[in-house]
Amino acid sequence: MKFRFEKSEDKEEVVVYAKSKNNLINLIEKMCQNDSTKIIGYDNNIIKELSPNEIECFITVEEKVFAIANNGRYQVKKRLYELDELLANSFTFINQGCLANLKMVDHFEASIGGSLLVVFKSGYKDYVSRRQLKTVKERIGIK
Q: pTM of this prediction?
């Protein structure tokens, strides 16, 4: 397999030439889609375009979905399950009401009872539910 990079001032696109579609090509396609995915956040009179890379997590509060990003909280007009489908590669549920970007986690704190507290870079904290514990451990590389 050969690799070639061409710089273009006009457009930004990825072109893949291959004999057939495989897992690597599917991964490249998803990465390109996630990279260009923008989330619109609302904070009172402010409307802001948020990149998935700057969002720590999405939470639900009183049946509304909020994105925690840039030390702020922005309301999002999508449901958690829609965001999960859109951002499946980089986000995972840590509990029923929180979809987390594991790249934005500062650290985890384990308790004697076996629960796991997630502390994000902004200082926001949330617990991993027992139902999601196995998935989260697999995603961060703990067996």
A: 0.71
